[in-house]
Design goal:
Number of strands: 0
Helix content: over 70%
Structural class: mainly alpha
Radius of gyration: 14 Å
Shape: flat
Strand content: under 5%
Number of helices: 4
Order of helices and strands: HHHH
């Protein structure tokens, strides 16, 4: 396993552990930190392992941080405002 995939697994483990801790702001500050760390990590995984592994890590990150993805898709107009998915 390469260093980038190991770091991606540590990122996913940290994201899940952070989600278990109670938060007053619905975990948004933690989500911003995870996004800021995850974007360069995604580039590193793609660079070191190829686009298919990069796509797999992107989908895994999107499943962990699904609400920021939903709000982004609403913001660009892909999803209607009342949609839950």
């Amino acid at each position: 396993m390469t260093l980038s995939l190991t770091l991606a697994a540590v990122w996913a483990l940290a994201a899940n552990l952070l989600a278990m801790i109670p938060s007053r702001d619905n975990h948004w500050r933690r989500a911003y930190v995870l996004i800021a760390l995850g974007i360069p990590l995604l580039g590193y995984v793609t660079y070191e392992n190829g686009p298919w592994w990069g796509l797999a890590v992107l989908l895994a990150g999107m499943s962990v941080l699904r609400w920021p993805v939903v709000y982004f898709l609403r913001w660009i107009g892909v999803l209607p405002r009342g949609s839950r998915e």
